[in-house]
């Protein structure tokens, strides 16, 4: 994938990097993420910002921040990965810096199909907490789980004191 990027964090030579994408890159990443999430299937996320974990020009993981509610200090994220190698602590901290420090959000949330155990475990690993079950969120009898991270949780887990 060809994308323009601004480096948010450059790690050691053997470590991936987190990049913030311009509008064209965000659109391409949103398609990439959507195509890897079965219930999204490449659908449009609307106004969004894309961040990627890349190894050179190879994307390991992508996060699309969407449904930003400035008045409520809240934003949703959708993510997908082709490799578990993205999930290093420093990468997660850099990816979460965008909503909590740049947008100054208080609440970050995901809505995940209740049967997607890999995504739910990944969210828990990152530090999200299970908040609620959304009945029929993905169609009749296809429930979703809302998971959230609040700014104090992010600070406690990822900001250096």
Q: In percent, how much strand structure appears in the residues?
A: 35-45%
Helix content bin: 25-40%
Stated plainly, the CATH topology is called Aminopeptidase
Q: What is the mean predicted local confidence, pLDDT?
A: 87
Name given to the CATH architecture: 3-Layer(aba) Sandwich
Described by the principal axes of the CA atoms, the overall outline is globular
The overall number of domains is 1
CATH superfamily assignment?
Answer: Gcn5-related N-acetyltransferase (GNAT)
Number of helices: 4
User: Quick one: biggest sheet?
Assistant: 8 strands, mixed
Major sheet: arrangement of strands: 1-2-3-4-5-6-8-7
CATH class category name: Alpha Beta
The low-pLDDT segments are 1-14
- The count of DSSP E runs of length 2 or more, i.e. the number of strands, is 8
Report the span from N to C terminus.
Answer: 37 Å
The radius of gyration computed from the alpha-carbon positions, rounded to a whole number of angstroms, is: 15 Å
Short description:
The chain has helices at residues 23-35, 89-102, 117-126, 151-158; strands spanning 5-9, 17-21, 48-55, 58-69, 74-81, 107-113, 129-134, 144-150. With 161 residues, the protein is α+β, with helices and mostly antiparallel strands. Mean pLDDT is 87; it is low at 1-14.
Sequence-ordered SSE layout with sheet pairings:
Elements (H helix, E strand, L loop, with lengths): L4 E5 L7 E5 L1 H13 L12 E8 L2 E12 L4 E8 L7 H14 L4 E7 L3 H10 L2 E6 L9 E7 H8 L3
């Amino acid at each position: 994938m060809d994308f323009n990027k601004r480096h948010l964090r450059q790690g050691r030579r053997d470590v991936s990097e987190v990049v913030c994408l311009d509008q064209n890159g965000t659109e391409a990443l949103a398609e990439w993420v959507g195509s890897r999430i079965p219930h999204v299937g490449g659908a449009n996320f609307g106004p969004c910002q894309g961040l990627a974990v890349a190894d050179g020009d190879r994307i390991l993981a992508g996060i699309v921040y969407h449904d930003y509610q400035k008045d409520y200090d809240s934003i949703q994220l959708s993510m997908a990965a082709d490799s578990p190698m993205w999930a290093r602590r420093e990468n997660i901290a850099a990816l979460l810096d965008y909503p909590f420090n740049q947008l100054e959000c208080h609440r970050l949330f995901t809505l995940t199909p209740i049967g997607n155990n890999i995504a739910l475990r990944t969210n828990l690993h990152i530090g999200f907490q299970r908040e609620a079950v959304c009945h029929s969120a993905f169609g009749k009898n296809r429930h979703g789980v809302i998971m959230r991270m609040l700014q104090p949780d992010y600070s406690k887990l990822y900001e250096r004191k």
